[in-house]
Amino acid sequence: MSNNSEQSHHKLPFSYYLNQDVIFLAKDLLGKVLYTQINGETTAGIIVETEAYFGVQDKASHAYGGRRTNRTETLYSQGGISYVYLCYGIHNLFNIVSSVEGEPHAVLIRAIEPLVGKDIIEARRNMPVTKAAVSSGPGSAAKALGIDRTFNQKDLNGEEIWVEDHGIRYSNEEISAAPRVGVAYAQEDALLLWRFFVKDNKYVSKPNKI
Known about the structure:
- The chain has helices at residues 22-28, 118-125, 138-144, and strands spanning 2-3, 10-11, 33-38, 41-54, 81-87, 91-98, 105-116, 161-165, 168-169, 175-178, 195-198.
- The protein is mainly beta.
- The strands form two sheets. Strands 2, 3, 4, 5, 6, 7, 8, 10 and 11 form a nine-stranded antiparallel β-sheet that branches. The chain has a two-stranded antiparallel sheet with strand order 1-9.
C-alpha cells in the first residue's frame, strides 16, 4: 500500500462516478475514504471491501432485466448519488450509484476501516473500533457511519456523505477478487469475481472466501 501524504485530501469529482466500468470502480474505490456528517459529527472509514453490480445484465442486480420500481429508480439516476436499501428488514446497505443516467450500475460498500470519529463509531456500534465486527460487512459498515434510509438518493458531492481520495493505493497483489456474497439466486452470475477486498485487512467481512 502506498500513501502519498503530500497529496491534499479532496472529494472525488462528480465525473469520477460517471465511469461506465463498474468493475474498475469497485476496485478503484478500495483505499478511498467514505465520510458522513450527521448533526455536526463527522465520521469516516477507508473502504476495504466492495461489490460491483452491473445493471440490467447482472442477475444479482436489483435492476436486472431493466426492472424499475420505486426502490430501484434511484439506480437509474446519473452516477454520484447514494442508493440505500433495507436488507432482511434490519440492515441498511449503502451503494454508490455509478455510470450515466439510465444505466443502473452500483458499487456496494461491504466494509470500512474506521479512520475519523472513532469514538462516535464506537458509540453507534457499542463496541471498540479495534474489533473487526465494528464495520465489517455492509450492514455494520453503514451503521458505523450512521447511514440509514434517509441517506438514499443523497448527492455524493454534498455535505452529508462524500468520498475523498487520500492517496491510499493498493497494488493488484494486495487486492483479492472473489464471488459476491448472498447472491446464490443469481445463477451463473453468482460465480462472477466481482467482490474486491484488501488482503489481510481485518475489517474485511469474508476474507477467506475466495
